[in-house]
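Design a sequence for this backbone.
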């Protein structure tokens, strides 16, 4: 691919991500928002390791969208959007179910986004969201939620690389506790987390070993 084609494709990628980010934040239908978040995740994962940088204003917009959804501030999280109301949403199921889908779909973007943007640039912005994920795990103690949070934190560690070092001593005990969980899913994701953390910040956690 020549430089002109690469530049045009990069413009298209950034424009697409910006539009999807705005749609996820402002669409009134929860199901549309979930589908949009899943599409963003696919795009981010396809960009990993490739020379198509995301513009600062675009990844900043993605962070705002993720944060809004994790904190129940997106348009689709208004009360009348869950029951059809005036929004015209097709969703008429369990509110708890769609809330969980939104939370997981948004949280799942953090690792891939960190991998594409770079941990050094993004860590300070996603740190509060990591704290929110951990609080969610402590208050909603289902196996599915516990497994999701452990897996997501591990993906964030992997995406941030060595930039995660300042948080290593906080994350390591969390992953270690997960090893003894009765659920194979939770313990497996905890092993994944310890492995990625050892690869990224071995000096910071070596005294634990």
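Sequence:
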């Amino acid at each position: 691919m020549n430089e002109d084609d690469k530049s045009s494709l990069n413009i298209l990628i950034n424009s697409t991500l910006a539009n999807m980010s705005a749609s996820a934040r402002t669409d009134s239908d929860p199901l549309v928002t979930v589908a949009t978040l899943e599409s963003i995740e696919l795009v981010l994962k396809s960009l990993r390791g490739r020379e198509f940088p995301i513009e600062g204003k675009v990844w900043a917009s993605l962070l705002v969208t993720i944060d809004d959804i994790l904190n129940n501030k997106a348009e689709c999280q208004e009360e009348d959007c869950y029951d059809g109301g005036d929004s015209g949403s097709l969703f008429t199921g369990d509110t708890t179910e769609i809330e969980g889908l939104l939370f997981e779909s948004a949280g799942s973007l953090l690792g891939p986004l960190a991998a594409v943007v770079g941990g050094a640039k993004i860590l300070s912005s996603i740190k509060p969201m990591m704290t929110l994920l951990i609080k969610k795990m402590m208050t909603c103690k289902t196996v599915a939620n516990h497994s999701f949070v452990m897996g997501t934190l591990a993906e964030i560690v992997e995406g941030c690389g060595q930039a995660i070092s300042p948080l290593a001593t906080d994350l390591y005990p969390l992953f270690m506790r997960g090893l003894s969980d009765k659920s194979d899913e939770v313990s497996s994701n905890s092993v994944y987390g310890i492995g990625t953390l050892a690869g990224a910040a071995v000096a910071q956690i070596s005294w634990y070993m």
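The two ends are 47 Å apart (CA to CA).
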